[in-house]
Amino acid sequence: MDRRVIIFDHPLIQHKLSILRDKDTGTKGFRELVSEITMLIMYEATRYLPMEDIDVETPIATAHCKCISGKRLAFVPVLRAGLGMVEGALTLVPAAKVGHIGLYRNEETLEPVEYYCKLPHDISNRDVFVLDPMLATGGSAIAAIDLIKRRNPRTVKFLCIICAPEGLEALKKAHPDVDIFCAGMDSHLNENGYIVPGLGDAGDRIFGTK
Ligand code: PRP
Ligand code: URA
Questions:
Q1: Does residue 202 have its Cβ closer than 6 Å to ligand 1?
Q2: CA 104 to ligand 1: nearest atom
Q3: Is 201 a catalytic residue?
Q4: Measuring CA to CA, which residue among 49, 1, 10 is closest to residue 182?
């Protein structure tokens, strides 16, 4: 199957994204919306997961069913803001393992700086879903996926809430095998590397640090 790049146009996602962007949406509402939007994106991102056969005894007979093996999945949020997407992802796949990659953007160069990396030891047997609400220049997503690919995962997918065209193109070019799922795409980056109109600083809004 060709690599998938999905920018969602579903009414539920667009509606929630509009409230998320609003500067008057507070920390509690912001966190809840990030979780809800993550669930909606994850629903689509998990569409082609390999299934296993399972027999289930109903009160009437044996049903030949399918199930997803939680052992196959790993969620990797990019700290800090990606943490806001973990709860929503785990609500859908509670058995997934969770790794963490710490990156921040140098405010002058906009280059990502790595400060933490802890991934599941068996990540080479897993399908990895990288979580980060913002894809701006693409530097953080590319660096996070570089780190993950060094451990030879089965597949890598990238989930975000808002992307800029610049970041999307950079990520597609750097990692042509990675499926990308974005709740919405905005117009451009400003001179400080922020997505316009965007939603501001996702980490600060999730953690209430500004
Ligand atoms: C934000 C965001 C991404 C990155 C996107 O993190 O969560 O990781 O910026 O920008 P890029 O595509 O240009 O790399 P930030 O560096 O602000 O760190 P934080 O989550 O700790 O606030
Ligand atoms: N990081 C954010 O949190 N917001 C942006 O607009 C760009 C990068």
A1: yes
A2: 16
A3: yes
A4: 10
Is residue 198 within 6 Å of ligand 2 at its C-beta?
Answer: yes
- In the set 109, 122, 146, 209, the catalytic residue is 109
Tell me the C-alpha distance between 11 and 64, whole Å. 35
Assess whether 25 carries a catalytic annotation.
no
**Count of domains observed in the chain:** 1
Ligand 1 centre to CA of 153 (Å) is 23
Could you give the CA distance from residue 166 to residue 27 in angstroms, rounded to a whole number? Answer: 28
Place of tokens 């997505």: 195
Q: Residues 120-177: pLDDT tens digits?
A: 999 999 999 999 999 999 999 999 999 999 999 999 999 999 999 999 999 999 999 9
DSSP symbols for 120-152? -TTGGGSEEEEE-SEESSSHHHHHHHHHHHTT-
| Burial label, 167 (beta-carbon count in 10 A; 0-12, 13-18, 19+) | buried
d(CA 66, CA 110): 45
Please give the model's pTM, rounded to 2 decimal places. 0.96
CATH number, position 139: 3.40.50.2020
Tell how far the Cα of 73 is from the centroid of ligand 1, in angstroms: 24
Nearest ligand 1 atom, CA 105: 16
Q: 188 lies in which domain range?
A: 5-207
Residue 110, classed as helix, strand or coil, is: coil
